[in-house]
Amino acid sequence: MLDYRHYIIQDPQICGGEPVVRSTRVPVRTVLASLAEGATVQEILDDFPSLTEEAVRAIIAFAAASASEDLPIPRTPAIREDQTRREHPGRPRSPSP
After folding, report:
1. Is residue 65 part of a domain?
2. CATH number of the domain that 41 lies in?
3. Cα Dmax for the chain
4. What is the rounded end-to-end Cα distance, in angstroms, of the chain?
């Protein structure tokens, strides 16, 4: 994984301490929001000429590291087989392990 620490900084004097790309005022969350909305890396680079492709990859690595460190893994609800049959009556039963 790319070492995002070379690209992402937090400084109370820059954007209120929000994580930004080093040597810019481009917030990490702005780039992540663009990616979540379906923007391509090239579109982000066009919108933010001070960024590089590596910086965008570093933002993704930062988000992945943050998610694995800070967020609990959400529980997925268990679906019982009889509930599945009621919701999808034409679906064949899955074999038991």
Report:
1. yes
2. 1.10.10.10
3. 61
4. 36
User: Is the backbone of residue 16 left (phi > 0), alpha (psi -120 to 50) or beta?
Assistant: left
Q: What is the pLDDT of residues 77-86, one digit of tens each?
A: 665 555 545 5
* pTM (two decimals): 0.69
DSSP 10: -
Position 95 confidence tier, pLDDT thresholds 50, 70, 90: low
Could you tell me the CA-to-CA distances from 80 to 20, 41, 86, 90, 92 in Å, in that order? 45, 41, 10, 16, 14
| 96 within a domain of the structure (yes/no) | no
In a domain, 69, yes or no: yes
Of residues 16, 19, 18, 17, the one with CA closest to residue 8: 19
| Domain range enclosing 54 | 4-73
Please name the helix (run of DSSP H) or strand (run of DSSP E) that holds residue 9, with its range, or none: strand 8-9
Comparing C-alpha atoms, which of 14, 34, 16 is closest to residue 24?
14
Residue 52 token pair: 């590089």
